[in-house]
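Exercise 7. Predict the joint structure of the components listed below.
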Amino acid sequence: MKSGFVPVVGRPNVGKSTLVNQMVGSKVAITSIRPQTTRNAIRGVVTGPDPDSPDYQIVLVDTPGLHKPRTELGSRLNSLVYRTLGDADVIVFLVDASMPIGPGDRLIADRLKEAGSGVVLVVNKLDKAGRGEIVQQLSEAAQWDFDAYVPLSALTGDGVPMLVDEIVGRLPEGPLYYPVGMVSDQPETLVIAEIIREKFLDRLHDELPHSLVVRVEDVEQRDDGLIDIAADVIVERKSQKGIIIGKGGSLLSIAGTEAREDLEGILGDRVNLRLHVTVEKDWQRRPQLLDRFGFEPS
Ligand SMILES: Nc1nc2c(ncn2[C@@H]2O[C@H](COP(=O)(O)OP(=O)(O)OP(=O)(O)O)[C@@H](O)[C@H]2O)c(=O)[nH]1
Ligand SMILES: [Mg+2]
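Solution:
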């Protein structure tokens, strides 16, 4: 069979996580309208075309958006992305059709040329861009001389089968890396933390989405089946704590309820979610805290 590792890379907010979820057919990565949502290399497995006797397995690796780092966290995330390229069989590089190709995209394109793997360029958000914009993007991207060009919409799924064909055609012969039916290998505590973080992101502005990190402290199932989850919602400054809690606790309560409902769907049992908001001053810049939060050094 054909199989291999396929990092999905690009600037923040171009739709990498949305594409991975669309290809896998279930939500393995959180998404948001805010840039720099993804902070881990998240594997999403696509086994097909017929799961009973598969011909291919694509191990997608969703990655953080590559950007000009302003904090130690940013540097660590960028180097995490570049590390994933080392194991790549094929690389998927996304640009956003609704925005002009910029210096950030060109910098990534240059780095990918050095990576030495096949690159499929995806022009995403087809549903949101005019025909003229798409033609412009494709002709500009064609100068990079990558191996294939696929316009698609990660949101609607339009054009995604063509991307699957382009990837599979470039995969080497290889083993089934994951059992059929397994879509991701993230630890449960990480999945829970990400769902909780997602519920805050779209509701926060300015620097706050970046200042937020969620740590699951305890997961325990009681005899009656109820799953008790305790998590810390951590921000960088005292003033941010008030915003996270919201007027009369409203934001914390809305986000908590939404997270609980999602988690009950994922875990298949009733959930009691206890969120505790704390401050770890400037954690994005402090190597020791980043180590503790699981962000590997550059
Ligand atoms: N209209 C439209 N919106 C899209 C499409 N793909 C993604 N989006 C939206 O773009 C925003 C960013 O999507 P993400 O998938 O979180 O982007 P990302 O590249 O993973 O972002 P980072 O993790 O921050 O690097 C979300 O609001 C998505 O709903 C698309 O094909 N069409
Ligand atoms: Mg993402």
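Discussion. The domain at 2-168 is CATH 3.40.50.300 (Rossmann fold).
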